[in-house]
Amino acid sequence: MSAEEIMDSEDFRKCVEFHGHLCPGLSMGFRAAKTAMERLNALRSEDEEIVAIVETDACCADAIQVLTGCTFGKGNFIYKDHGKVAVTLLSRNTGEGVRVVLKPDAFKPDPAHMALIQKITSGTADENDRKAFDGLHLKRTGDVLTLPEEKLFTVQKVNVELPARAQIAPSVPCDFCREGVMGTKLQKKNGKNLCRACAGG
Q1: Under DSSP, is residue 121 helix (H, G, I), strand (E, B) or coil?
Q2: Which of 38, 56, 86, 90 is deepest in the core (most CB within 10 A)?
């Protein structure tokens, strides 16, 4: 499949719509999620059938949410601040797990691309810079989408203990701020039931 065909696919368009724009990072998440789901032979999670553990809060995490159906709201999308383009998918149905991580040399920074990103984020880019950036951004996105899997990712089976299913508990007022908080998240401090913000956590 060509990069253009992938970018025109319904799955990819859903990822772009959710994320808000097309970029190489989103494409990494798209590829990582597809790879992990294929290895687990898993379908998109309607409830908590799959658990996703991501190790970055960058663009790729959005594509992983869209494709896997794992979300913060369902409690099956777990974020670990490791700064790695990596996702671990776990299946509650089979107990199997797979970790997909970007290889260190798979996507080296392009100096021209990085310089244009700096200009855009600093607000100093002119129209020519923006056009050049759009072209490079599209090219880099296409590179990610068409690079062979074995050159892009390290993939390995993992045995990770499945987290408990999401809890639903009634809200209770914090004894200090009086805002409602899930009862299971309250902390005891000096004899009072406090939310984590008021408890200093």
Answers
A1: helix
A2: 90
- Return the structure tokens found at 23: 């970029």
Give 147-153 contacts, CB < 8 A, sequence gap 24+: 147/106, 149/31, 149/35, 151/103, 151/106, 152/28, 152/31, 152/102, 152/103, 152/106, 152/107, 153/31, 153/32, 153/35, 153/100, 153/101, 153/102, 153/103, 153/106
The matching CATH number, chosen from 2.60.120.380, 3.30.1330.130, 3.65.10.10, 3.40.50.300, for 3-158 is 3.30.1330.130
Kindly state the tokens that stand for 11: 């799955």
- What the block records as the tokens of 176 is 């200090």
Its pTM stands at: 0.86
pLDDT tens string, the chain, 201 residues long: the values are 899 999 999 999 999 999 999 999 999 999 999 999 999 999 999 999 999 999 999 999 999 999 999 999 999 999 999 999 999 999 999 999 999 999 998 888 788 888 998 998 999 989 999 999 999 889 999 999 999 999 999 999 998 888 878 778 889 999 999 999 998 889 999 899 999 999 986
> Tokens 């984020």 label which residue?
121
